[in-house]
From TrEMBL:
Residues 192-275 form the Reverse transcriptase zinc-binding domain. Residues 368-427 form the RNase H type-1 domain. This is Reverse transcriptase zinc-binding domain-containing protein. CDD domains: RNase_H_like (cd06222). It comes from the Eukaryota. InterPro entries: RNase_H-like_dom_plant (IPR044730), RNaseH_domain (IPR002156), RVT-Znf (IPR026960). It comes from Lithospermum erythrorhizon. GO terms for molecular function: nucleic acid binding; RNA-DNA hybrid ribonuclease activity.
Amino acid sequence: MQMPEAVYNKIEKIFNTFLFDGMTWCKWSKVCAPYEEGGLNMRRLADLHQAFMQKAWKRLREGNSLCSRFMLNKYCGKHHPRIVPVHPSHSRVWKNLHKVRDEAESNIHWQLGQGLCDFWMDSWMELGPLCNHYPDQKGGIRVNEVWLNGTWDEAALSNLISPDHLHRVKEVFIDQGKPDLLLWKSSKDGQFSFKSTYEAVREQRHPSSLYSVIWHQNIPKKMSFVAWRLLNGWLPVDEVMSKKGIVLASKCMCCAQMKTLNHVFFTNPIAQQLWSHFASLVGIKSNNIQSIQQLLRIWSLSVNTVGHIKQVIPIVILWAIWKARNKAKHMAIPFSFRRLRSRIISVKHKGPTLLCWEKPEKGALKLNIDAAFKDGRGGYGGILRNDQGELVVAMRLEEKCETPLDAEIQALLICLQECIARGYERMGIVITFQRYFIKHWEYST
């Protein structure tokens, strides 16, 4: 089912508000593009629906399922699906399929087997459907009707098509021992691929090596996100905010000039000193560079090894400058070269931490407790397991409470009372409180 366009727009507006924290910087369609095309590698809902409907049309044309045979008999009858008009009384599902029909048909090619394809309407030769060359023909002839003894019947073909097309048809291979096979042109192997279909459906843009540079597997996404917003001019510095109608008295935190994106990140004295320092360390001359875009382009061209640490330095510098700018603006922390340099040098990539459930000692039990708090109500949960990790008992409850700490204490009290009431007294306790694990491991007898 296709949602109304207004619903798509409303959902995309919610996505946009969440991503940019309430302020609209661009249309959601600009975000929905691969990294190298200037997007965030997201997908538009309307394009996803389009790709799914093409998949549904492909299954309809294969006719292998009960549903597809029902749809073909109900809406097409003896006519080819390619030429059946849509009627106001038809179901919404069929109307939605009809909308993608032409685009989906352009992706379909039939590999001949038993020859049950339509001679005129189906695409079974390199020229595409013969109806494109003979518009007066409306189908009704199967390919195997112009075969004779396992090969093409030239006499029958000469009455239907021109000599030039006859020569092209004779080049098509026939394998009568197999059923006709539907091949999907958008996919390299001929099998339907949602990824390749979506790529064919979505709006294509020109890729840029500049955007490819900022998205590196060893760079945290939050750093790349700031660099992405910078390249698009979507960071809230005074110059940009004035263009959005929010005019403020503007003065740089380290000089008297107006805060522009280029000035904050590149041309102010401290940023210049910072870029010169790290550029000299990796053998790049930054004397004649005038903008961040130019600097990133020169920096990326100087890297000849994929994954080299030299590749990530500019993004880390931009991130450090932006954090220092925010601290100088909102917390009155001085914007200094030494502080920025030490922060950049100390940056380390932290990978995911694996947390494992540890078994208690033999014969003991282990109680895991957690709680949640919202709007004056707390939700509590506890799981008691034995030394083999097997579930002994699970508990949950909701009650009124005043603070998150009250919720955690109530969870501990309620779960302990329940365990003791059931006769379980020798246990270890693990409490999850906000982001920290507070372990209390005592055994009682």
